[in-house]
Specification:
The protein is mainly α. Helix 2 packs across helix 4. The protein is globular, with a radius of gyration of 21 Å. The longest helix is centred in the middle third of the chain and has 27 residues. It starts with a helix and ends in an 11-residue tail after the last helix.
Length: about 260
């Protein structure tokens, strides 16, 4: 599968690709349509094989994805039910309440306070990805996998940050903690607004990229990738840095972290 995808598009045997796809999804109707008009379905074959390749490169099968979903969705639903991070989002009537926020929050080191602040975005990411997957209940596992993987990572990060925040004892030196998607504590004051704006842009266009992949919209994928690269360049120019987990997510989505962003 990888060898086929690594070939230049004009050299690919579309029928051979369709045959591989048939073995993966058992969709004989799609296979017949591709064989009849291979040139018309060339992009479709590539898109579908890339989805399956991501699963295989992660060492999983479609059956593993189904099992993963059975484990992740109930855990996430419990996270949302217990949600400790409540913001002033208009969608949440109880927005002025911050359940679970420590009474000594203002006395905590900046790195530990950042875990709470960063979890606001983590919570919204968990909620939005969970909602998208619920809307895709009829879709096959290979279509749901990328969103499921991101949901699992966001939920684990939310829980890990909360555990570190709750478990911190004042007087201890905090371990090196970098809360993804939060302002760098060491950044000059004048650059913090620029860093925050860059992070928000990365988050916004990452969501757009995920949606574009799901929709199979190549033009929007290209736009989102360009915007993310530009935001990363701006973040770094302002003295900020990507968290390791955000970097891993972006790499999974095909973002070149070394590329120079467009102005």
């Amino acid at each position: 599968m990888q060898d086929w995808l690594n070939q230049p598009a004009h050299e690919r045997d579309i029928v051979a690709g369709a045959t591989m796809l048939l073995r993966l999804n058992r969709n004989r109707v799609l296979y017949t349509n591709i064989v009849r008009r291979p040139e018309r379905f060339a992009d479709k074959v590539e898109y579908e094989l890339r989805k399956h390749l991501k699963i295989r490169l992660d060492g999983l099968t479609v059956a593993d994805v189904v099992k993963m979903e059975r484990e992740v969705m109930p855990r996430v639903e419990q996270t949302l039910k217990d949600a400790l991070v409540i913001t002033t989002d208009a969608e949440l009537p109880q927005g002025t309440i911050a359940r679970g926020k420590r009474l000594d929050h203002d006395r905590l080191p900046a790195e530990i306070q950042a875990l709470w602040d960063g979890n606001i975005e983590n919570y919204h990411k968990v909620r939005d990805l969970h909602h998208r997957l619920k809307e895709m209940e009829a879709a096959p596992p290979c279509d749901r996998y990328e969103f499921l993987k991101l949901l699992d990572e966001a939920d684990r990060r939310y829980r890990e940050n909360l555990a570190k925040y709750d478990g911190f004892v004042i007087g201890q030196e905090p371990a090196t903690v970098v809360a993804d998607n939060t302002t760098d504590a060491q950044a000059p004051e004048k650059d913090k607004a620029r860093i925050n704006a860059a992070r928000k842009s990365i988050s916004k266009w990452k969501a757009a990229l995920i949606k574009a992949y799901g929709d199979g919209d190549g033009e929007k994928c290209t736009e989102a990738l360009s915007k993310i690269s530009a935001a990363i360049a701006d973040l770094r120019a302002a003295g900020g840095a990507l968290g390791t987990k955000v970097s891993a997510e972006l790499l999974q989505l095909g973002v070149d972290l070394e590329a120079e962003g467009d102005e």
